[in-house]
Design goal:
Number of helices: 6
Radius of gyration: 26 Å
Largest sheet: 8 strands, mixed
Helix content: 25-40%
Shape: elongated
Strand content: 35-45%
Structural class: alpha+beta
Distance between the termini: 45 Å
Number of strands: 18
Strand order of the largest sheet: 11-12-13-14-15-16-17-18
Amino acid sequence: MELKIDYPYKVGFGTVSEAYKPYWNEEPHEYLIIVSNDEPLCYNSTVMDQESNHMASLTTLGYIDFDTDEHCSEKGTLLWEMRPDEYDSEIHKSLFKGGIIYHIRAAMQIDNNVLYPLEVIRECRMEYFLDNLYEAYVKENDIPIYLETKMFGNLLLDKTYNCFCSMFEYKGRTVSLIIRKDWQARDTVSKLESFVRDFEVHDKEMRRYAAERLTSLANELADKKGEAHITEEEFYNRIFPESIEIMIYAGYIVHYHDGGLFDNHSIIVKGNKKELNMLK
């Protein structure tokens, strides 16, 4: 079970243990790091004839040193000594997640690319240098990427379209859910969940909006085909939602099946808290 981490979080004992100090630079620096998707290793070791508490380690894909502005693109190691309560709770499995950028305070091992984290200061949303390292790692290892949600579980990234996708049942039909993969994706999740919880209200409003603006156009097309006219109420009842795309700042886009009114071309309604707009 994943544990919620409150930041800033003191890692282990918040300092390099006496047994390890000869192997690490004395002054810690602040770093941005990104790690692999591997589960942390956990083991005991003996240093200078002293048995340590349980150690945890992960592979780093690169880092940025805030103090020196060094940008490292070589794989390295994140290594730390856990407190007994950390080991018992298995918090090391939740502390660093692949693909997430962390701002940490850490000591660097002398002559090796190994960081000893003392504190996790915060998570960061975007840093192009580290994001590109992770993208290359994912591509090279063909690693699936997921976006965590409470309502829909883990959404798998569709790498062809660069978006996280899922679906839900609505009035006997399946509606697709889309979140574009960018640095705002995790912030968009709660907005999507809130929108879907109230979707019946949103759906009625959007279908009514579309009916008011497109019924006359549908009847113009019906004239050309020699078909009967429809009312706004009939238009309202014929269209149905097919997909929802949520954007953190730009609102939402809902694709509606046209019910055959426009030769099966989608009706697209874009909205936000203030207004609705027709895109098609």
